[in-house]
């Protein structure tokens, strides 16, 4: 018995636990040794021999890829929160992303890597399987769980709560009823941050003919000025028109693009509330939490509260750390539940 205990201690010492929020736009990772990293979920490849000379590497991951996109072919491995395609090339791109994830976690060569990875609430079995196959190449054990469940676990809100996790690729909602949520307790919407970016780009082009705007510029505007409801002040941004600087008012366009997320979210909340016991529904309505990058949209919590007021007293709040709440919850779950029990929570390898 003493020998077995010593072996378990030795194994635990070599085990590096990771909590990973693998997002369409950004990936966050935290480790049991204190590593905490955020990087863009993009991989850049030189377009030609000149690009290779400028980069000095066969590929680059993260913010560097976007900053150098003028001479790189920038790839987004994830779409709507899951692998874009299952072709050999797409898998290779995702493999480079996974290798970077391990690198920033500061894993040692002798480490036994064990990771809990967040995926959209209603990700398909095929998508989960493809992700786990990639994880298997660099990790000893990996488990995929729904992103809103990760947030709920980290916040300790596992009973009579609804989590709304608004990312770039998906908006995921989850009703927590004191047990591991099943498919009927979760909803994935494909209207999320990227959808807002595209709507905003189109609306600005329509309202201000001749301005030059792409998805990256639209995303920057959204991340700086996103709001719903009445604007506290005009939103004026400097764009380019025919190569020249032009200051344009985009207040109405930002509001319209951001509010385009609301109808589907409200409909999904109503569905999830009805799944709780009637005596618990008043408590649930006071325990709705916004998470993910979309929770930073100014006024969204009060806007949703007002729209839901027909159901009685409502409280919508924002998670304290939209960037790391998901992977923090995954790390907490992984540390509190040994890897040998992970299969009880969902799809697992190792």
CATH superfamily of the largest domain: ATPase, nucleotide binding domain
What integer is the average pLDDT? 92
At the third CATH level, what is the topology name of the largest domain? Answer: Nucleotidyltransferase, domain 5
Structural class: alpha+beta
Count of strand segments: 19
Which residue ranges are poorly predicted, with pLDDT under 50 across at least 5 consecutive positions? 1-10
Tally of individual domains: 3
Q: Beta-strand level of the residues, as a percent range?
A: 25-35%
Going by CATH, the architecture of the largest domain would be 2-Layer Sandwich
Rg of Cα set: 22 Å
What is the C-level CATH assignment of the largest domain? Alpha Beta
The rounded distance between the terminal residues' Cα atoms is 25 Å
Order of strands, main sheet, comes to 3-2-1-9-10-19
What is the topology?
Blueprint: H1 2-14, E1 15-22, E2 26-31, E3 36-40, E4 43-46, H2 49-55, E5 60-61, H3 63-67, E6 72-75, E7 78-79, E8 82-83, H4 88-104, E9 112-119, H5 125-138, E10 141-146, H6 147-155, E11 159-166, E12 171-177, E13 186-189, H7 193-207, E14 211-212, H8 215-225, E15 236-241, E16 244-249, H9 251-259, H10 262-274, H11 281-285, E17 288-291, H12 300-307, E18 316-318, H13 325-336, E19 348-349
Parallel strand pairs: 1-9, 9-10, 11-17, 17-18
Antiparallel strand pairs: 1-2, 2-3, 4-5, 4-6, 7-8, 10-19, 11-12, 12-13, 14-15, 15-16
């Amino acid at each position: 018995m003493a020998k077995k205990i010593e072996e378990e201690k030795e194994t635990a010492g070599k085990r590096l636990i990771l909590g990973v929020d693998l997002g369409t736009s950004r990936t966050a990772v935290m480790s049991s040794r204190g590593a905490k990293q955020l990087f863009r979920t993009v991989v850049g490849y030189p377009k030609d021999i000149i690009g290779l000379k400028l980069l000095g590497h066969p590929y680059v991951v993260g913010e560097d890829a976007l900053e150098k996109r003028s001479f790189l072919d920038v790839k987004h491995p994830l779409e709507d929160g899951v692998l874009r395609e299952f072709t050999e090339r797409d898998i290779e791109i995702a493999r480079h992303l996974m290798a970077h994830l391990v690198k920033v976690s500061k894993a040692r060569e002798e480490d036994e890597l064990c990771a809990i990875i967040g995926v959209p609430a209603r990700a398909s079995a095929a998508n989960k399987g493809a992700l786990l196959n990639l994880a298997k190449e660099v990790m000893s054990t990996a488990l995929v769980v729904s992103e809103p469940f990760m947030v709920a676990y980290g916040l300790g809100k596992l009973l009579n709560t609804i989590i709304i996790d608004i990312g770039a690729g998906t908006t995921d909602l989850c009703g927590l009823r004191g047990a591991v949520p099943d498919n009927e307790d979760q909803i994935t919407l494909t209207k999320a941050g990227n959808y807002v970016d595209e709507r905003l780009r189109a609306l600005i082009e329509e309202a201000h003919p001749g301005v030059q705007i792409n998805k990256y510029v639209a995303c920057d505007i959204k991340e700086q000025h996103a709001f719903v409801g009445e604007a506290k002040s005009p939103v004026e941004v400097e764009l380019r028109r025919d190569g020249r600087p032009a200051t344009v008012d985009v207040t109405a366009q930002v509001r319209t693009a951001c509010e385009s997320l609301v109808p589907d979210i409200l409909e999904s909340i109503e569905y999830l509330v009805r799944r709780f016991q009637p005596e618990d529904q008043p408590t649930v309505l006071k325990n709705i939490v916004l998470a993910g990058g979309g929770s930073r949209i100014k006024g969204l919590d009060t806007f949703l509260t007002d729209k839901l007021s027909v159901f009685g007293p409502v409280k919508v709040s924002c998670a304290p750390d939209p960037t790391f709440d998901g992977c923090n919850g995954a790390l907490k779950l992984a540390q509190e539940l040994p890897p040998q029990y992970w299969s009880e929570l969902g799809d697992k390898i190792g």
